Amino acid sequence: MAGTHHFSLTRLALATLCAVAVNTQAADAVYREAFPRVAIDPSRGVAGGGDADFGATLQYWQDDQALEKSKPWIGNPEHEWKLNWKFMDLDHTDDMHPGYLALEQGEKLFKFWAKREPAFRTCLGEGKTDFKGLAAGYPKYDPKLKKIMTVESRVEHCAKTALWEDFKQGSPANNQISLYFKSLSTNMPIKVDTSSTEIMDSYRRGEKLFYTKVGQYNFSCASCHTTTGLLGQRFRGQVPTSPFADAAHFPTYRVGLGDIESLQQRFMRCNLQARTKGLPPGDPAYTDLEVFYTVLSNDYPVSVPSAR
Amino acid sequence: MADMMKIRTQLSGDALAIKILMAHPMETGQRKDAKTGQFIPAHFIKNVAVGLNGKTVVAAQWGGAISKDPFLGLKVKGAKAGDKVTVNWEDNKGEKNSAEATVG
After folding, report:
1. Nearest CA of chain A to the CA of B85: how many Å?
2. What are phi and psi of B102, to 5 degrees?
3. How far are the Cα atoms of A28, B73, B76 from residue A207, in angstroms, in the given order?
4. Closest CA to B94 of B42, B56, B46
5. pLDDT tens-digit profile of A15-27?
6. Smallest Cβ distance to B21: which of A96, A105, A258?
7. How far apart are the C-alpha atoms of A69 and B82, rounded to whole Å?
8. Per-residue pLDDT tens over the stretch A53-95
9. Which residues 6+ apart lie within 8 Å of A197 measured at CB?
10. Domain map of chain B by residue range?
11. Could you say which DSSP state residue A219 is in?
């Protein structure tokens, strides 16, 4: 009796093994589930495409009084961006957070290198020496390099070509210079060129990544950051936010880290928190995701330096 | 690093609100370096003194429990425009820093 039982179990195990083997042979590509898509129109920006229109989530974020007060802001391009509570945070109520210390270090670092090698300045500004408003146009397609450039990859590229220095994306030097570069466009609306085909191709790839489930928890970005997911509900002691305006305040000072962090480093840490192997900052997949996120932040003001 | 300290003052009536942000690593001495496995030596601010026109208004003894890049906020009565606010700190390695601001 026991013998037959043992025998049948072994056969069962063998059969399962064979089935697994057949399955892996049949599937040549990695199988990934996707989160159901929601309607996000990249061309609409704040006016109509932002938080006010995104599944009516405002009630989760404000009390009734504040909601009444902010109702006239809906549809008003001058005030509508304030409806996104990311702009009601520490950095807009207080001008004394450590992001400013990082900004000072970045300014010092940039001026040191630009004095030693003026080509660094012209390379960062693509010929211009005044950086005011330049960062609001990033990420953009560089026809010379045939690549989509983010502020961080521009700093890395210019440091390599002009200074022969290795300011890798995600390194403190790169983050500080990027923070300084972006701070010169602060309060200016983000204008990523959505008419460029390269940017829109990258946007579509980033959009696909946004909905693709990965890792041990089988999470996609959309699992938490869309209304059909966890957006507006409590999760890990926090309220997941909408994807709009997320890119506006990076690189940002993270209180939990005690350091500044770029958007792509945030993606990496987010992946790790969802038990997925993160990619290094500067990876093409992260660049596509950054393009997706920044297009959704179009028309929102750059708010650097910031603290979260 | 050591030269960075930010001071903001705001006068309302004769009450002066002072905000101070100091750049300091504030190592407790109990963290381990993930690569070497060795303890990171303690490095924290021990004494802070805030003065108004040369008179000490706050003298604090700090330890490793204070966070990195500490922020100190205080209110002082009896201040007027043109007063001088001075901040001095000394850490456990004997490093010192001071900054000054004029009440505007």
Report:
1. 17
2. -105, 135
3. 24, 44, 54
4. B46
5. 444 444 444 444 5
6. A96
7. 40
8. 554 445 444 566 766 777 777 777 777 777 666 776 565 556 7
9. none
10. 5-102
11. B
Written as six digits, the tokens of B44 are 């924290």
CATH superfamily of B5-102: Immunoglobulins (2.60.40.10)
pLDDT 10s digits, A128-166: 889 999 999 989 999 999 999 999 999 999 999 999 999
B56–chain A nearest CA distance, Å: 23
Task: Using CB atoms, pick whichever of A96, A100, A258 lies closest to residue B68.
Answer: A258
Complex ipTM more than 0.90, yes or no: no
Strand (E) or helix (H) holding B13: none
Name the maximum alpha-carbon separation found in chain A: 87
Rounded to 10 degrees, the C-alpha dihedral A210/A215/A218/A220 comes to -10
Q: Does B31 touch chain A (CB under 8 A)?
A: no
Dihedral of CA atoms A215, A217, A222, A227 in degrees, nearest 10, equals: 180
CB A96 to CB B68 under 8 A? no
Please report which residue ranges of A159-220 form alpha helices under DSSP H. 172-183, 197-211
Instruction: Report d(CA A273, CA A269) in Å as an integer.
Output: 6
Nearest chain A alpha carbon to B8: A96
C-alpha to C-alpha distance for A167 and A155, rounded to whole angstroms: 7
Report the distance separating Cα A221 and Cα A212, nearest Å: 8
Q: Which two tokens stand for residue B50?
A: 């805030």
How far, in Å, CA of A218 to CA of A23, rounded? 20
Which structure tokens are listed for A59? Answer: 């009630």
* Domains, chain A, ordered by start: 46-95+190-296 (1.10.760.10), 99-183 (1.10.760.10)
Give the other-Cβ count within 10 Å of A95's Cβ.
13
pTM of the model as a whole: 0.81
Beta bridge partners of residue B71, listed in sequence order: B21
Q: d(Cα A184, Cα A175) in Å, to the nearest integer?
A: 14
Strand partners, A111: none
